[in-house]
Amino acid sequence: MKTLLITILAGGILLTSSSQAQVTESDLETCLQKTKEIMNTSRSFDLKPYCTKSLKKQVRKGEFTTPDEPIGFFDADIRYDTQDDIPRILQMGPAKSNGELVEVPVLLKFNYAKSDDEAFTKRWIFLKENNQWKVDDLETIKKGQIRPASLYRELLQYTPPKTYSTSRKHLSDTVEIRSNRALV
Question: How would you class 46 by CB atoms within 10 Å of its CB: exposed for 0-12, middle for 13-18, buried for 19 or more?
Answer without folding.
Answer: exposed
